[in-house]
Amino acid sequence: MHTGTRRALLLHLAVLAGLFALQFVLPDYHHRNLARILVLASYAAGYNLLLGYTGLLSLGHAMLFAAGLYGAGLAVQLLGVNAASGFAIGVLSGLALAVAVGLVALRTSGVAFMIVTLMFSQAAFLTTLYFAAFTRGDEGFVLPEASRQYQIGSFFFDLSDPGTRYNFALLLFAACLMATFVLVRSPIGRVLVAIRENEQRTTMLGYHTFRYKLLALAASGAISGAAGAAYALLFSYVGSTFASIQYSILPLLWVLLGGVGTTLGPLIGTVLMFYLVDVISGYTSAYLLLVGVALVLLVLVFPKGILGTVRAKAAPWLP
Amino acid sequence: MSFGPHLFLALLEGTVTAFVLALTALGLSLVFGVMRVVNVAHGEFFMLGAVLAWAVSSLIPASPALGFLLALIASPLAVGAVALLADRLVLRRLNYAPEATIVATIGLLYILQQLVLTFYGPYARPVTAPISFRVQFPWFGYSGYKLVVIAAAAALLAATWYLLMRTRIGLVMRATQYDRETAQAFGIPVERVYSGIFALGAMLAATAGVLIVPIQQAHYLMGLDPLLLSFITVIIGGLGSLRGTLVAAFVIGISDGVISVFFSPTLAKIIATLFVALVLVFRPSGLFGSARA
Amino acid sequence: MAAVTLLATEGLSRHFGGVKAVDGVDFALDRGEIRAIIGPNGAGKTTLVGMICGRIDPSRGRVRFEDRDITGLSAWARVQRGIAYTFQITSVFGGLTCFDNVALAAQRRVHGHRALDREVARLLGRVGLADRAGVVAGVLPYGHQRLLEIALGLALKPKLLILDEPTQGLSDAEIDHFCALIRDVAAEATVLLIEHNMAVVMELAQRITVMDNGRILAEGAPEEIRANPQVQEAYLGS
After folding, report:
1. Between 20 and 30 A from C76 (CA), which of A79, B44, B203, C209?
2. Least CA distance to A290: which residue of chain B?
3. Alpha-carbon distance B88 to nearest alpha carbon in chain A (angstroms)
4. In what order do the strands lie in the sheet with C68-69?
5. Residue B206 has what pLDDT?
6. What are the residues facing C220 on neighbouring strands?
7. pLDDT: is B260 or B186 the higher one?
C-alpha cells in the first residue's frame, strides 16, 4: 500500500525536477510558453480538486481566476502595493469569492450547480465590464514596470525577467501540485473522494458533507485565485477576457483531456491543449473549433482522459 | 420626446423582444422538459438561423420579400437537420446523461460558432426587411416590420401550442416527458421523439433568428445573448413548464425593453443574472419540479 | 427501566401521500440487547429505522437516544452520536479499496497513519477480509461486500448498530459466519436487526418486534413470538 505512495511521490518530484531542468534547454519561444502553461496548469489543478476529487462540475471557475487576477492587478495598480502583497490579496480574493459563492451554490448539485456557477461567473464577468473606469473592461490594463520589481533582503527580483518569471511560475505549480498530492492522500481527501463516489453513504458515516464540499471549493478557489494573481504579476496584463465563460470552459477541457481526478493530468492536458491551439491558430482564426471538437470527443469516446486511462490500464497507484 | 411617448416606445420595443424571446426560450424549455437536456448550444441555433437567412436571401437580391420568405422556410429546416445530426451523433450516444450532455453541448456551441466564423467570416451583415413601410404615431414613426415580427411570432407560438396540446404527436411528446420508461413500454419510440423534440427546439430558435435578422445584423457571436436570456426565462418560468416559459418571456422581454431605455444594460444584466442564480438555488421545486406536476 | 433504555420513539409516524408507512409507533430498545424487527414486506420496518437514523424525516413523533431528543438532528450528527446504519442494498464505495472504505469510517475516531493502518487491519480481520485490503470493493463477490458493509458499521464503533437485511443473498456458510460475528459485536454495541430469515432471527435475537401495516403488532422473547397466535396469523403462518 505505501510503496505506491512512495512511487507516486518520486514521480511527482521527478516531474518537477524535469520542469526545472527544461528552462536551460528550451528555446526562448517555448520557454515563454511553458511559463504561461505552468500558471494555467496550476489553475487546472485547482479546478481538478473540485471536479476530479469531489465530483462537483463547476462552469464558473473563471470568476475565481479573475478574482485573483483583478485582486492582484487592481491592488498593484490602484493601491500601489508591492508584488508579494498583491499576490496575497489575489489569493484571498479567490478564496473569499469561492466561500461566498459556495455557501449559496452548494445547496444545489448536478445540473443546477453547473448553471448556478455559470450564472454567478457571468455576473462577475459583467461586473468587470461595468466598472470599466477601474478595469478598462475588454481592453484591460498593463501593470507598471516598477510594481513587478521586488526586494527581499539582499535579493532583488524582476518579474519581467524571463528566468525569474519561469521559476516563479514553476514554484507556484510545484506548490499547487504538492498541495493537491498531500491533500488527496490525507483523510480529508479520502472523504472528498467518498463524496464524489456516493454522497449519501458518506453522510451515513457521520460526515457533514456540505462542510467538506465547501472546503474543497474554498481550496479550489484559493488555488485558482493564486493562479490568476500570478498571471497578472508575471505577464503584466489584466483584462476581462479572463473572466469570460471561455476561461471557465478551458480548465474543464484541460482536466478532461489530462485525466479527471489525477494529480498530474491537469499539467498534461494544459500542455497538449496549449500547443494544439498554438499550432492551429497558425492556420485559422477559428482555433476555438478545436476546443469544441475536443470537448465532444472527450465526453463521447475518452471520458477518463490520458492519465485516467493509464491508471486504469497500467498504473493503479497513480494518485 | 416627453416621458409618455418614451415609455410607449420602450413598451413597443419590449414587446418585440418578448415575442422573439418567447420563441427562442420555448425551444430551450421543450428540450429540457421532455429530454431533461440542458442545451448550451441553443443560442447557436438562433445564430445559425440568422446567418443562413442572410445566405438564402442574398441568392435573390432582386426581391427582398421573396428572399426573406424563402429564408423563413429554408433556414429553420436546415437548422433542424443540423440538430438531428447532433442528436444522433452525440446526445443519443451519451444516453442523455445530464452532466456529459452539458459538456457536449458546450463543445457543440464552439463547433457551430467557429464553423460559421470560418465559412461566413467575422462580418455583421444586414438582411433587407421584406416590407419597408413605417407606422406613423403622433410622436414618432415606427418600423412596420417589427409589428410583422410580433404577428409572425405570435402565430408560430400558437401553432406550437396547438401541436403540443391538440395533436397526437403532442400527446406522444407529453407522455414521454411525463414518464420515459412507461412511454417506452407502451410502444412510443422514445428515441425518435427525442430527436424530433431536439430538432423542433432548434427550429424555433432558428425561426427567431430569421425574424430578428432584418432588425439586428447576422454575426457569428450573436447567439450568446439570446442563450443567456433564454436561460433566464426558462429558469424563472420553471424549467420544463411551457406556460411558465411564455409568461416569463413576456415579463422579462418587456421589462428588458423598458429597463434598457432608462438604465445601463450591463447593470441590468448583472442584477438579472444574480437573481436567476438565486431563484435556481432557493426555489428549486418551483423550477425543476413543476414539469412533473 | 429508564436507565437502561438506549433508544425510544414516541408516536413516530411517517405518511407518504395518503399511505401511513409508519403509524404512531412507540418503540424502545435496551442497552446491550440484540433486537430483531420482523414483518411482511411493506410493514414499515425500513421506514422506521430510516427515521431512527435520520435518513427519513418523520411526519410526527419524536426519537430519543440516550435520554436526549435527537428528532431534529441530521443523519450525520446521529452517526457521530453513535447510531450506525448498514444498508439493505449494499452500498460500499465500489471505486475505493477495502482499506479506504473502512478507513473512511474509522478515521474520525482513530488519528495518525500508523494507528489507522492497524485499526483498519484489525477490522478487516474481524470480518474475515484481512487479505483483501488492497482490492477495489466493487470487484468483491456479493457476500464479501456485505461483510465489508458490516466492517464499515463496526469501524464507527457505534452504540447502536442497525443492520437492514444483512443476510440477504448470503450462502449458509456465510450466514453462520455472520451470526458468530454479530454475537461477538453485541458485547460492545446494541444491535437492531431487520431480517427476513427466521432461522437467523431465532438464533440471534433476544427480543423480537413484529410490525404489520405500520404498527407494532407484538413484542417479546422469541418463544413468545413463536407462540403468539396473532403473529402466526399475520406473518409466520402465511
Report:
1. C209
2. B111
3. 12
4. C19-30, C5-16, C60-65, C68-69
5. 95
6. C208
7. B186
Q: Looking at chain C, which residue has its C-alpha nearest residue A209? A: C76
Q: What whole-number distance in Å separates Cα of residue A279 and Cα of residue C38?
A: 69
Judged on CB neighbours under 10 Å (0-12, 13-18, 19+), A97 is: buried
Mean pLDDT of C164-177: 84
Judged against a pLDDT cut of 50, whether residue C2 lies above it is answered with: no
Nearest Cα to B47, choosing from B146, B105, B116, B118?
B116
CA distance B83 to B39: 11
* pLDDT at C235 (0 to 100): 65
Put residue A137 in one of left, alpha, beta given phi > 0 → left and psi -120 to 50 → alpha: left
Q: Touching A: which chains, 3+ CB pairs < 8 A?
A: B, C
Rounded to an integer, the average pLDDT of C123-141 is 87
- Would you say residue B177 lies in a domain? yes
Quick one: pLDDT band at residue B290, thresholds 50, 70, 90? very low
pLDDT for B27 equals: 93
The confidence score (pLDDT) of residue A123 equals 92
Extract the residue ranges of chain A whose pLDDT is less than 70.
Answer: 1-3, 151-154
Question: Are the C-beta atoms of residues C132 and C144 closer than 8 Å to each other?
Answer: yes
Round to whole Å and give the CA distance between B27 and B97: 20
Give C162's strand partners. Answer: C85, C192
Instruction: Give, in order, the Cα–Cα distances in Å from A305 to each of A253, A270, A271, A294.
Output: 10, 12, 14, 11
Supply the range of the domain harboring residue B199: 16-221
**Count: domains in chain B:** 1
C95·A204 Cβ contact <8 A: no
Mean of the per-residue pLDDT values of chain C: 86
pLDDT class for C238, splitting at 50, 70, 90? very low
Higher pLDDT, B226 or C227: B226
Q: What percentage of chain B carries pLDDT values higher than 70?
A: 93
Mean pLDDT in residue range B64-82: 91
Angle between helices A110-130 and B265-282 (to 10 degrees): 160
| Within-domain flag for B107 | yes
Distance CA A58, CA A61 (A): 6
Range of weakest confidence among B68-72, B251-255, C75-79: B251-255
Which chain A residues are within 8 Å of C99, Cβ to Cβ?
Answer: 1
Place of cell 418560468: B237
Q: Are strands C190-194 and C160-164 parallel, antiparallel or unpaired?
A: parallel
Reported as half-sphere exposure (CB side, CA atoms, 13 A), residue B3 has a value of 0
Strands (E), B139-200: 141-143
Query: Does any domain span residue B292?
Result: no
Cell of C80: 457521530
- Please state the φ and ψ torsions of residue C206, each to the nearest 5 degrees: -85, -35
Residue of chain C whose Cα is closest to the Cα of A186: C113
**Cell 403473529, located at residue:** C231
For domain C1-82+159-238, give the CATH number.
Answer: 3.40.50.300
C-beta of residue A201 within 8 angstroms of C-beta of residue A194: yes
Neighbours of B178 (CB within 10 A): 12
How close A55 comes to chain B (CA, Å)?
Answer: 11
Please work out, in degrees rounded to the nearest 5, the angle formed at the alpha carbon of residue A218 by the alpha carbons of A213 and A220: 95
Instruction: Determine, for residues B266 and A286 on separate chains, whether the beta-carbon distance falls below 8 Å.
Output: no
Does the beta-carbon distance from B98 to A249 stay under 8 Å? no
- Angstrom distance (rounded) from CA A254 to CA C100: 28
Interface of A with B in 133-162 (CB under 8 A): none
Q: Which of A196, A198, A205 to mutate to test the interface with C (most CBs of C within 10 A)?
A: A205
Q: Where are the domains of chain C?
A: 1-82+159-238, 89-157
- In a domain, residue B117? The reply is yes
DSSP per-residue letters across B34-75: HH----TTHHHHHHHHHHHHHHHHTT-TT-HHHHHHHHHHHH
